[in-house]
Design a protein that fits this description.
With about 450 residues, this protein is an alpha/beta fold. The chain has 15 helices and 17 strands. Strand 2 and strand 3 form a beta hairpin. The N and C termini lie far apart (about 75 Å). It binds zinc ion (ZN).
């Protein structure tokens, strides 16, 4: 039998957690990659193909993780003004620094640091909402990670737009520039129901409909927001957004800490997706989202870190571990959010949440080759009774050994190949000096 040509062959993988519909687990097998896609999975596939081969003994393969909500450039504000009341943190630390420094350079440098950390810990696709998303797109071009990028649209002036109309117009130009790209996926990003008027929200919605792109928005993050929206519109946030017709299967709602029973029904009916950000909600003392209830009612929930200024890391394994333990604890039920569900939030459900489930989110023939390999040869990951539990509750992002995006190796032997670590640390400290000047 003639050998078939492949670009990359991952052999002898201890466990392949496909995260497909049946949650199939394949032991001691191979994954074959060609033209950026998975072309074959199974036992002894290596005997049928010829190409670059990596032996993956003592490794678990998973779909690349999907971070469904972040503000990547905020790595430059990581830990800045921490432990203050929200109002003090925002008004005395975050907003002055952003007001003074947010620029193409700030976003580019901050995003590079974020992408280094995301790749290092297994994230292959992230959803970003910030300003100067063209800088984020340029970092994606350089590194080959995937991103769903939405410029924040608000009713007051932002670093990229004086008015919401300008924000929407610039978003349309960005969509046109990247609409057929396989790495930069443009989206529309109205900030939140309390910072955008119904008119802005509707115009943004029309734009997302016109191009079939994601409508990414913060909803019901804090009690303050719920109160503000109720006072202004006489409705809770989800009811308000539904009444103006901006909720659909393309809506990705970040946080959703305070949905009422009725609002959860609306989310399920409109097929709205949720980006659950437990660590940010805890650190900012926003509250705890009723994730098990939303999942039970059929709402698709993905996981997000939010920006590092309120997390303060981008490690998705840590995020799902926090989520699983948090919901077990508050529900006083250890069966809640089991390890499979926690990993689904980071993989297949995350792909559904961002509208990319035909491309990513599971390891299956025909899907894009976005793959994470976790090294389980270390003592803290042995004995290994159940690979799902071991990854969620014993592993950390540091155990990610190899990361492949679109068939290309981005991390190998725990080293990021596409960015220079020392240069990034220098840049981080360059910005720290500038930012600390503000409070002197
Ligand atoms: Zn956010």
């Amino acid at each position: 039998m003639a050998l078939k040509l492949a670009d990359l062959i991952l052999t002898d993988i201890s466990y392949i957690l496909t995260m497909n519909e049946n949650l199939t687990v394949i032991e001691d097998s191979d994954i074959v990659i060609k033209d950026g896609k998975i072309v074959d999975i199974g036992k002894n596939k290596k005997d049928e193909y010829f190409g670059r081969t990596i032996t993956c003994k003592n490794k678990i393969a998973l779909p690349g993780f999907i971070n469904t909500h972040t503000h990547a450039a905020m790595t430059l504000l990581r830990g800045y003004g921490s432990d203050n009341p929200l109002k003090v943190w925002l008004e005395e630390y975050i907003w002055p620094a952003e007001g003074k420094f947010v620029s193409y350079e700030f976003v580019y440098d901050g995003t590079e640091i974020a992408v280094y950390e995301m790749l290092r810990t297994g994230t292959t696709t992230f959803v970003d909402m910030y300003f100067y998303e063209n800088a984020v797109a340029d970092v994606i071009r350089k590194t080959g990670i995937r991103g769903v990028l939405a410029t924040g649209i608000l009713d007051f002036p932002t670093p990229g737009a004086k008015t919401p109309e300008e924000g929407i117009q610039k978003t349309e130009e960005f969509i046109q520039q990247y609409k057929d790209d396989m790495f930069v996926f443009p989206a529309v990003g109205p900030h939140a129901p309390y910072t955008c008027s119904p008119e802005t929200l509707k115009k943004a919605y029309e734009l997302s409909e016109k191009y079939g792109v994601l409508y990414h928005i913060h909803i019901a993050e804090t009690e303050f927001e719920v109160k503000t929206v109720k006072e202004k519109y006489g409705k809770t946030p989800v009811e308000h957004l539904d009444s103006i017709g901006v909720l659909s299967g393309k809506t990705l709602a970040a946080h959703m800490v305070y949905p009422t029973e009725n609002e959860i029904e609306i989310l399920a009916e409109r097929e709205v997706k949720v980006a659950h950000c437990p660590e940010s909600n805890l650190k900012l003392a926003s509250g705890i989202a009723p994730v098990p209830k939303m999942i039970e009612k059929g709402v698709v929930v993905g996981i997000g870190t939010d920006g590092t200024a309120s997390n303060d890391n981008l490690d998705i394994i840590g995020e799902i571990a926090t989520s699983a333990k948090l919901h077990k604890g508050v529900n006083k039920d250890p069966t809640v959010l089991n390890a499979k569900e926690a990993l689904l939030m980071a993989t297949r459900w995350g792909a559904e949440a961002v509208g990319m489930s035909d491309l990513i989110g599971s390891l299956e023939e025909g899907k894009l080759a976005d793959i994470v390999l976790i090294d389980v040869s270390q003592p803290h990951l042995n004995p290994l009774y159940d690979p799902y539990t071991q990854i969620v509750h014993s592993a950390t992002g540091s155990d990610v050994d190899t990361v492949i995006v679109n068939g290309e190796i981005k991390v190998l032997n725990k080293e990021v190949l596409v960015l220079d670590k020392n240069y990034l640390i220098e840049k981080a400290n360059y910005w720290k000096k500038k930012i600390e000047e503000i409070r002197k």
